[in-house]
C-alpha cells in the first residue's frame, strides 16, 4: 500500500533572501533529514514559532497568576 498523501490548501507564499552560507547549511540539513529544502525550512520555522508562542503564553499566565495571587492575599 502506498503512502497516504495529505493535501492541504496553501494560500500564502514566503520569500527570503539568504546568504550563501545559510543556503548551503539549510540544504545540507534538509538532505540529512531526507526532506526538501521547503519542508525543512517550514517545519523548522513552525517548530520555533510554536515554542515561542507557548513560552509567551506561559509567561503571560504566570504574570496573571501572580497578579491574582497578590490581589487575593
Note down, in words, how this protein is organized:
There is one protein chain. This protein is mainly alpha-helical and 73 residues long. Helices cover 68% and strands 0% of the residues. It has two helices and no strands. It has helices spanning 20-33, 37-72. The longest helix has 36 residues, at 37-72. The protein is elongated. The model has no long low-confidence stretch (mean pLDDT 85).
Name the descriptors.
mainly alpha; 73 residues
SSE layout:
Blueprint: H1 20-33, H2 37-72
Helix pairs in contact: 1-2
Q: Quick one: biggest sheet?
A: none
Low-confidence stretches: none
For the terminal residues, how far apart are their CA atoms? 62 Å
Strand content: under 5%
Mean pLDDT: 85
Q: Give me the strand/helix succession.
A: HH
Radius of gyration: 20 Å
- Based on secondary structure, the structural category is mainly alpha
The number of helical segments is 2
- Kindly state the number of beta strands: 0
Portion in helices: 55-70%
The dominant shape is elongated
Amino acid at each position: 500500500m502506498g503512502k497516504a498523501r495529505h493535501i492541504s490548501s496553501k494560500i500564502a507564499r514566503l520569500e527570503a533572501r539568504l546568504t550563501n552560507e545559510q543556503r548551503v547549511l539549510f540544504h545540507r540539513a534538509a538532505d540529512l533529514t531526507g526532506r526538501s529544502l521547503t519542508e525543512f525550512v517550514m517545519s523548522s520555522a513552525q517548530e520555533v514559532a510554536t515554542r515561542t508562542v507557548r513560552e509567551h503564553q506561559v509567561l503571560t499566565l504566570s504574570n496573571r497568576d501572580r497578579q491574582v495571587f497578590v490581589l487575593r492575599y
